[in-house]
């Protein structure tokens, strides 16, 4: 039987080799069903409100925010392990007749974690707004259009990541460097980024369509990319890495 010293050395070595782990959804029938249905619901709501999005983007995006927030919070609470809970899973199993210690049964408060993640997403909307401006969004015009678009991006793509990873700088560096193992949350983030970028392509084209105005195609691309990315990556490419190389950890 390995000694405590050997177990500690093995744990440290594992942390160095794999500093960021992929996050699996909860292993329950409800979590699986909700995880599959959620992208369909989000895209379906977008389709139902598409004409309203074209005619009045600001009002439509504003009124949709509470609905999207409720869907995302429900998804997080029922499908995702809260920040720190994936470490609790490795707790020692009790023997028959043995009482569990408080440290083995206690875990993170999911509701508090969801509120914390919502707060971080709200704060991050300002940074996303700035990135939209840097990548060509109208600076002086359509300010509320861009702001609500940024808020939707934060709720879709960043909220689940904040819920499972918090403000772990190492994890976000790995995500930004594309060497973090892929999972449903990182796949959604990647899909939303790619979808928003591709959604900008039709805007400057000389087609004279109402749906080409800012930020309709960005929102559509963001939602489609998020839905496809979260399920495709979370199912087919779970645990894979986009980059084959990663920075070596300092010893």
TrEMBL record:
Transmembrane segments: 30-52, 64-83, 111-135, 147-166, 186-205, 217-238
Key words of the record: Endoplasmic reticulum, GPI-anchor biosynthesis, Membrane, Transmembrane, Transmembrane helix
Primary localization class, coarse: endoplasmic reticulum
Membrane topology label: Multi-pass membrane protein
One GO process term, biological-process aspect: GPI anchor biosynthetic process
Location of the protein in the cell: Endoplasmic reticulum membrane
Metabolic or biological pathway: Glycolipid biosynthesis; glycosylphosphatidylinositol-anchor biosynthesis
One GO cellular component, as annotated: endoplasmic reticulum membrane
Name recorded for this polypeptide: Glycosylphosphatidylinositol anchor biosynthesis protein 11
């Amino acid at each position: 039987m390995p000694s405590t010293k050997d177990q500690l050395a093995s744990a440290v070595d594992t942390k160095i080799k794999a500093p960021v782990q992929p996050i699996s959804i909860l292993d329950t029938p409800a979590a699986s069903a909700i995880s599959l249905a959620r992208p369909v619901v989000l895209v379906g709501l977008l389709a139902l409100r598409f004409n309203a999005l074209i005619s009045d983007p600001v009002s439509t995006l504003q009124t949709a925010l509470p609905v999207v927030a409720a869907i995302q919070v429900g998804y997080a609470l029922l499908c995702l392990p809260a920040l720190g809970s994936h470490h609790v899973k490795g707790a020692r199993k009790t023997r028959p007749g043995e009482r569990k210690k408080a440290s083995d049964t206690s875990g993170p408060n999911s509701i508090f974690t969801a509120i914390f993640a919502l707060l971080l997403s709200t704060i991050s909307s300002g940074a996303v707004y700035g990135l939209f401006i840097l990548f060509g969004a109208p600076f002086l015009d359509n300010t509320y259009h861009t702001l609500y678009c940024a808020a939707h991006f934060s709720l879709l793509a960043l909220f689940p990541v904040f819920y499972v990873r918090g403000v772990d700088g190492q994890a976000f560096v790995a995500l930004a460097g594309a060497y973090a193992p892929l999972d449903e949350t990182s796949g959604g983030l990647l899909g939303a980024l790619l979808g928003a970028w591709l959604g900008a392509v039709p805007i400057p084209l000389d087609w004279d369509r109402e749906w080409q105005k800012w930020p309709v195609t960005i929102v559509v691309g963001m939602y489609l990319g998020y839905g496809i990315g979260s399920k495709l990556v979370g199912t087919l490419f779970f645990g894979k890495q986009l980059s084959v190389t990663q920075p070596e950890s300092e010893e």
